[in-house]
Protein 1
Amino acid sequence: PMYFFLSNLSLADIGVISTMVTNMIVNIQTHNELISYEGCLTQMSLFLIFICMDYMLLTVMAYDRFVAICHPLHYPVIMNPHLCGFSILVLFLLSLLDSQLHNLMILQITNFKNVEISTFLCDPSLLLNLSCTDTYSNNIDKYFLVAVYGLFPISGILFSYYKNMSSLVRIPSLGGKYKAFSTCGSHLAGVCLFLGTGTAVYLGSAVSHSPRKHAVDSVMYTVVTPMLNPFIYSLGNRDIKRALRRLQRLTV
């Protein structure tokens, strides 16, 4: 199941990078930074789908690690293929719902043309701030979505790792503790990287209004983090380590 979720996480990361980087490459090659209204909404929709999938997959993977460490004998029964496939379907539908709700908010309030945004991404928060109309109700809806799609997954991840650490403490041997922790170390590193850069983007934009800083944080969040995920998860794999050692011997 862990590799099944990792493959879906990789697909979501590819989607996030493709949504951002392809448009950036076109802009650099053509020296044209314009994006159409329809293109902006499309980019925003795809970005929200993939980034939401990314985030919620990390939550499901935290549950997977919880079952593997706290209930190892029941792991094959609980994390069966039907549950894994159904969870991916539910995550996709929730991500699609989040994307369309943001789109609906933007469609209701955007009444501007030829405006400039200070980043390479059509971020819903930036588009809401550009509106000339009262966005109070839309901001309430946005914060509600952040609470539902943000706080609940974080609570699930924190609870799962609280239970994991409680189980790790009770393992008598040091080798057993290391083996159990190694199964969730890569995931924990991925969660910290994703949440750390995401928090820097959204809290940083609220505290500081520097366009350059917001653009740099956005690059870290949307491009660098998905690119680092394959290294984080594969370097913990013994087969990958063995292959790297063989490659190192050949080069030496």
Note: The chain has a mean pLDDT of 79.
Protein 2
Amino acid sequence: MEGRNQSRLSEFILLGLLHQPEQEKILFLLFLFMYLISGLGNLLIILAIYSDSRLHTPMYFFLSNLSLVDICFTSTTIPKMLNNYISKNRTIPYAGCLTQAFFFLWFAGMDSVLLTTMAYDRYVAICTPLHYNTIMTPKVCALLVGVSWFWAYNNALTHTVLLTRLSFCDYNKIPHFFCDLSPLLKLACSDTFINNLMIYTVGALITILPFIGILISYIHIFMVVLKISSVSGKQKVFSTCGSHLTVVCLFYGTMIGVYFSPTSTHTAQQDTAATVMYTVVTPMLNPFIYSLRNKDMKGALRMLITRKPGFTL
């Protein structure tokens, strides 16, 4: 490290997913397809919830916010990667790299906190159904979403500001398809102790703490389920919570594996593959997961798609 040039870098080079040029066209088409499916699917979820008054409930209010965040989440990374494949220019300015890292951390944090909020909503609906309408009021729901945005914003800002104090030397190649926090820290030639400390403290507040909150919510839910005698009643609870649990496992399983496991246990390629899961695949699957097993959502989507042109929401 000491022999490196200590001048401030003006740009980074994103190496992407693979180093074989002949496979770049396949990757471009694949990620373009997933990006379009993700954007269209999440947009349809938002429009369906907004246009159907039956879906104006806390659960669907949180789901519409999750869909909005997922659109922003994928738009932070995929368009730049697609542009790199088209232009063959993999460089990204220093300021642009930090900006991308900030928005990525912001929307990733929003996903984390919103999933926890949705778990709390299910906990209240199943464990205290008689008090649901008095607890989950529109004001409380708006407050929970507002806190989610503010909490995730402060987390992203903390990590981004700490990145600006680091020195990056002559080696500027990032083995990733976007400016992620972990590979950026590995490129730094100055002390990253505080940055890593913040990942395991402040970062844990936006990932581990919400994950624990989800586990506690579902422990209480399962305790209630065990007391339900009818099979149909248990199936109704599982159908309500199954979609959310599937998304939670996909999102948190890969994210915790990338950021909170020892770096010696996995390679950069494994980190990149895991990152693709929660940055691209999970947002793309969310609309399908939340709609295919939900009769109300399928009905709203069917009405939205078959509605005559010229309708007003």
Note: The CA atoms of residues 122 and 167 lie 46 Å apart.
Protein 3
Amino acid sequence: MKYKKVVRLYSNSRVSKYYRATNRNKNKAVMLYFANLKIAQAFHPLLSSFEVILRNQLHYALARHFSDGNWIINQKSGFMVDPSLTYINKRSKKKVVNDYILKEVKKAEKKITDRGVIVTTGRVIAEQTLGFWNSFYETHHYALLSGVPCRIFKKLPSGYGRKEINEIILRIRELRNRINHNEPICFVNKRCDFSYVRNMYKVINEFLTWIDPEIMPSLNEVDKVLKVIDKEENKQIR
């Protein structure tokens, strides 16, 4: 497809980033735009697996912790409303209520009820976003849960804990959001560069391997990320 038509279809403000990133080479700009789409597409199975595995492992760990398979519903009157979640901000002197998890669970229950179906643990869990599960690694919730969220890892490296895991999930969420909004992921400092996506692939790979070393080998048939990156990077080099 010609550069002019790509601009007309996808907007100049979006495509011009690729034009500048390829030293104003229209052909390479078009190639890079579609390379970005292909690499984003290749990440979807991995990101989907990451989110499902993270949420399920957290669910299992918290169900054991509370000895309650319906903890996500029943803890609305438990740790989700712990008095320590309400405090006075030292700077603003204003009252703060850290009720994000509680609100998200209630919101999910309302959505389910509005659909005319019974509220179940499985349905409430399925409604939650990656941001919801990420919040279990924030300082206050993590402490309330006695560090349980880090017990989902079989092979967590020495020196890694809540802070590091929280930061990694935030980075993966950022990648996922960029992909979902069709933003450039093959750029570093506004230049064509595939090192970011290579590094993020490594980050996701390591994270899942820490949970269970068998996860990544099980995804061999659908994991094409590095192959697609190699192919598209070679096109830019030519």
Note: The first helix runs from residue 3 to 10.
Protein 4
Amino acid sequence: MEQHLYTVAQIRAIEEAAYAGLEPGALMRRAGRAAADHALELLEGRRDRPVLVLAGPGNNGGDALELAANLAEAGVDATVLHLPGRREASAETAAAYERARAGSVGWIDMLPPGADWALVVDGLFGIGLERPLEGEARELVEGVNALRCPMLALDVPSGLDADTGAVVGPDGVAVRATHTITFLGDKPGLHTGDGRDYAGEVRVDMLGVATADATAEAKADGETPLPRAAARLGGVDLFAGQLAARRHNSHKGSFGDVAVVGGAHGMAGAPVLAARGALFAGAGRVYVAALDHPPGYDSTQPEIMFRLADEFEFDRRTLVIGPGMGGSANAMRLLAKALDGDGPLVVDADALNLIGASPDLQSRLAQRKAPAVLTPHPLEGARLLGMTTAVVQADRLEAAREMALRTNAVVVLKGSGSVIARPDGEVVVNPTGNAGLATGGSGDVLAGICGALLAQGWPAWEAAAGAVWIHGAAADLLVEQGVGPIGMTAGELPAAARAVINRLVREAGAR
């Protein structure tokens, strides 16, 4: 099932449309009930212990006050720490405040030292926050982040940008939640950048409101249609159509050739890792076309064939260019040759840096007719766009979109919640993977997997989305098996990726 991601502006439009057909305060009451039900699930077996509810001055605080009243009615010892604002509260929030005051909810003015909370609920600030937390709010967030207990954020962890996944402000702070219940639609910022660290496990509650994506046809009665999602979470459905069991009557040539171009002096390991990724992802034949004198063979995977790049024929092969390639004049010449070719291409690592520094190479890339997938990490992406890494990370979705538009290619902006974008503006945020992928060579393996999928005939969009999902799922599988995330190595990923791919093919055949 597709999981759509909505910007703050889109959520506001959905909210406004919902208000038109509901009585005042209905959405806030629904949010308070949904959040309370989720909190009661998290409190299973610990309902005799107190719960702290942080309520801010806006409607997010109103949701928290409704939750507190609901928990108290359920017999939970709920205590509210309320931060009133300078402006008058909305009528709905004022009503929620009165309801909480009228019940058995407890009230405190500051965070008590040494309290043992079963759960902390964050309802300080929602999706409308535009300035970094400061003063009392900042101190409160720093205080609750030091607690060792589950933390449930309402809509979005306070201090986190719901659109971008960045903590608001260059020296900002945000609530580090273990769980987030988000309303009226999922938000991209919960799944990329800092989002996965701060949002924890995300649950979406639509509060009984339909969006355009959930409606089969647009309304024909002249009403303004609700907005469609700006992005979506990646999933197997994005590339399921490419998953198929192999025919018995096939041979190695049936599954394409992948050539990894790289391996300058002292950097032979990177192309070997990419080649292993391609081999274990099902490519029929895999070569390393090395810029420096290549090794005779890979003792771990002797199936990989080594050639000298200057003497290697690029035609009729899928190229993965860049791992360990360096920045020499010969590297630039080989990259230009690859960009001028008519085969599928994965551009990674040093090749991205060369393109970022050369308007000529950028032009060659943008004019390609054959499929191309770029796999930059944030620094490489910043070089391609001519900006700083901080600017890229401040809005990962927009940076990926811009790279895809400029290069006329599918772009994978790597990182926590990798972002896949294509030139028409379609964006996917990948949900798989873990911190074990933050290790040298991990990106080389990803490039190899992507090259293998392209070589087997997958379109560029499906190959990129599939490679990123499989690569992350391989890391997740290793963690399940007790390997990592600490100490996980890139060399362990190819075999795990093979297991993931074969499992997906079996599941596709069973449906």
Note: The mean pLDDT is 95.
